[in-house]
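Our collaborator T.R. sent over the components below with a one-line note: 'Predict the complex.' Nothing else. No constraints on interfaces, no templates requested, no preferences about which chain binds where. So this is a plain run: every listed entity goes in together, and whatever single assembly comes back becomes the starting point for the next discussion.
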Amino acid sequence: MLETIFTTILYIFLFCTLYMEVFFLITFFEERAKLTHKPENPELAYHPSTTIIVPCWNEEKTVTKTVESLLALNYPKDKLNIFIVDDGSTDNTWEVVQKFKDNPQITLIKKENGGKHTAVNLAIQESTSEIIGCLDADSFVEKNALREMARAFNEDKNVMAVTPVLVVHEPQTVLQKMQQTEYYTGAFLKRMLSPLDAINVTPGPFSIFRREVFEKLGPYKKAHNTEDIEIALRMQANHMRIRNVHTAHVYTTAPNTLYKLYRQRLRWAYGTMKNTLDYRFMLFKKEYGILGMITLPISFFGVFIFLYNFGYLAFHAIKALAEKIVEISTVGFSFIVPHIDLFYFNTDFVAILSYVFLGLALFIIFNGTRLALGRFKPTAGIFYFIFLYGIVAPIWFTRAVWNVAFSRSSSWR
Amino acid sequence: MRAKIETKKYIIVFLITAFVFLGALYVSNRFAARRTAEVKAAEDKISLDILSSETQFALLKDSSCKAFDHSTAFSEELNSLVEKLSYMEQNLGNENPDVINLKKYYSLLQIKDYLLVGKVNEKCGVKPITIIYFYSNKGDCAECQKEGYVLTSLREEYPELRIYSFDYNLDLSAVKTMRSLYGVRNTLPALVIWDENYYGLKTAADIEKIIPQLKRLRTLHNKAKAADATNN
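Returned assembly:
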């Protein structure tokens, strides 16, 4: 009886998950022509004046490379200002950035530590540009990224913010390679959410806004250490358009250890859930389109669905493992190589659905990689993502649910 | 102006999702039906083989017992079948009507084989080693799973060993008769070896003590393996 209830819940959740994936798939086929479209004239007719803010807190090792990537942008120098804001670093960040003090494009600001959003807000106040962006000091931009994003502003006056495609920079460890593939799937989903006006985050690495966003909505607010989600939701609540430009690439450094990854993802998962709760008035409201009907419900309930499905699979895997242990403890370890018989190939309902999900995941990875890199290249990261992500992600999702339930905030680091 | 999604898209997505979902259910059921058919076909084949052996045995009567063939390979077919039945029981559940029917058929085949082996034994003096095993999978037999592992492992090691396993709770008169014939109590797992009943978990070592011939078989197997290795 209990097993039937659990299985029924699983079927409902699997149906919901499949519904979402089919939704994105159909959107992909609707958008396919635009994904391969190249502008007739790669040069811009108009270059909006731009300010890029680089907030730093103890970024002495990476800030130089970040700023140099900005200086190398394929964009008129007189139209691009860079604000480096040292948010009370305790290392040598301030000394390191002094090398840029004579560059006319760069303004250096030092302030007391107050959190990333306070650093960005200070620079927004100082800026007079038409469009304003932010670049985390552990990220680097491709030289055409800004031009591609400015084009999106030029082409549609209603576009208020533009996000790029994020790519993991030089992945070394297994976890970084896993994240590399994860970012490709993210690139696919963000690009699909873009025409649906359903983007719920303007990521720290190189999201760019029209000045009037801040003039109309005010500056960044403290929001569970995920201010980039809050500003996006505030924009969506005010029906401001956010677009994702898949031709603009930004490289970011992914956490290289499980603990660092856990801290980062806990912050993201907790922030996503808390911000969604803060903007819950948009949930299931047709007025907010796909954002209200799909993105926000996924953001909040998706965590529970993920954990439930994981729990169900883990329960059965542990049960099978326990049976194997009983077998080994009873008759010892058998060295006989099992003969392959298709009779024993798992074809029960959940297994068949799993094969469908695996196929969909590979489709998304394939197309996400093509969006991010322009071509598909098989990597070990795909294997790690498929087999490892489902095992490690429940760690931070479980903790995030716990923290949300008991209102324990998560820290930046 | 926010992008508006037509209700039509939601409905189309729902229909495709439902199609894939129900399609997966259909495919899964088709595979289950195919498995049932495969097991049924294997049972039919075994049934035919038993009938053939019985007929051959009746025909030969007083002739040489050497001409009669009711081989170890036949026992292996039964072993393979029990593994498949066990897998189906795990996946479809022990309440599944198809599984119950296949188990009943399988139990009858085992009894027929057991009777034939008895007759051969009587006439030809060939005494195969047999174990009758009663189990329950209703959750009331904590040791049945372990006993199952022990017997499976013995089957693999000694293909000559004929193990007949019966679900103690199977609603089949022939199985009930077997139960009462050997006076097996509901204290499971229960083994019947050389007309003697043994209750509770019996390890491979326990069974080898009860059937000393198994050790001789092992020596023979080892010699055969060594000879094979030398020839190769």
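Summary for T.R.: Chain B touches chain A at residues 1-5, 9, 12-14, 16-17, 20-21, 24-25, 27-28, 31-32, 35, 38, 84, 87, 91, 145-146, 149-150, 152-153, 156, 203-204 (CB under 8 Å).
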